[in-house]
Amino acid sequence: MSELTSTPNTALFIGVGVGPGDPELLTLKAFRAIQAADVICYLENEAGQSQALEIASEALKEPVKVQQHLGVRFAMSRERIAANAAYDKAIMQIQAELKQGKTVVFLCEGDPLFFGSFTYLLERLESQYQSQVIPGVPAFVAATAQLQLPLTVLKQSFAVITGRHSDAKIKAALLEHDAVVIMKAGIERPRLIALLKETQRFDDANYLEYVSRDQQKIIRDLNQLDNVAGPYFSLFVITREELTA
User: Fold this and answer.
1) How far is CA 167 from CA 145, 199, 205, in A?
2) Strands 68-73 and 39-44
3) 244: which DSSP letter?
4) At 218, is the pLDDT very low, low, confident or very high (cuts 50, 70, 90)?
């Protein structure tokens, strides 16, 4: 078992996946790492709210030691200049704590390395600091559990793509693979609905918002889905009914 604490000479930066929203989907390893950390770091919106922090609230009730919180203010945007500036500022704050030999846990919704902001911090981290990743349940896995729908069986192929990709890439995935998950579907929802119809995958698709959270929404019949933009935390799960032998 790997050690989750630091000594004065050994700082540790840990990306902890907290899952899609249900606090009970937090793994035991993640729970313990959060409790043992010196510094809890997380993204927060312009209002100072953090979904990841809310998900991890149970683990934070009984920490092993006095903990410091470090919120990274981050506005959801496709503008990479602003995002990179936020990451640059965050890594300077994180490194200041690591230089003191502390264990810094960065809370990540879903999994740290699956469309996770932790990726951008990890690549900025100087090589002298040890790092660790504790995986979390990604939203699309929680989504198929909520649907009670097998994502892939036997020889079926599977692809994950985001709504930010071009029409050509999305159509290629829908035509080439038996099962497709389209992440970050919200603002692109009308375009994605059109592409599902164009590729004749409309009837194969399910739509979910805020998977495993209190405000979760599931639509299995896309005829009931409004053809307007949706929230950031939304996705499509597309599968075929027939099995590939």
Assistant:
1) 28, 11, 17
2) parallel
3) P
4) very high
Non-local CB neighbours of 115 within 8 Å, separated by 6+ positions: 162, 183, 184
Structure confidence by residue, pLDDT tens digits, 17-76: 999 999 999 999 999 999 999 999 999 888 888 999 999 999 999 888 899 999 988 766
Amino acid code (one letter) for 34? I
d(CA 127, CA 136) in angstroms, rounded, equals 24
Starting at the edge strand found earlier in the chain, the sheet holding 68-73 runs 68-73, 39-44, 103-108, 12-17, 130-134
For residue range 149-162, list pLDDT tens digits in order: 999 988 899 999 99
Helices of type H across 24-164: 28-36, 51-55, 57-60, 80-98, 118-122, 139-147
Q: Element (H or E) spanning 70, and its range?
A: strand 68-73
H-run or E-run covering 197:
helix 189-198
The answer to whether 192 and 145 are in contact (CB under 8 A) is no
CB 222 within 8 A of CB 211: no
Structure tokens at 39: 């510094």
Scan for tokens 């500036």, then name that residue.
Answer: 85
DSSP state of 71: E
Residue type, 4: L
pTM confidence score? 0.88
